[in-house]
Amino acid sequence: TGTSAVWAAQRVPDGHISVVANNFVIRDLDPASPDVLFSSNLFQVAQRNGWWTPDPSSPNPNLLNFLHVFSPGRMHPNYMHRRVWRVFSQANPGLGLPADTGRFAEDYPFSVEVRLRRTDGRTLLTPQDLMWLQRDHYEGTAYSTTQGLAAGPFGDPNRFDLAPTGNMTLLRALQGEFPRAISLFRTSYSTVAVSRRDRPNALALLFVCQYAPDVASYTPVFVNGRGLARDWTSGSMHMYSPNSGESVSQR
Question: Which of 6, 11, 86, 90 has minimal CB crowding within 10 Å?
Answer without folding.
Answer: 11
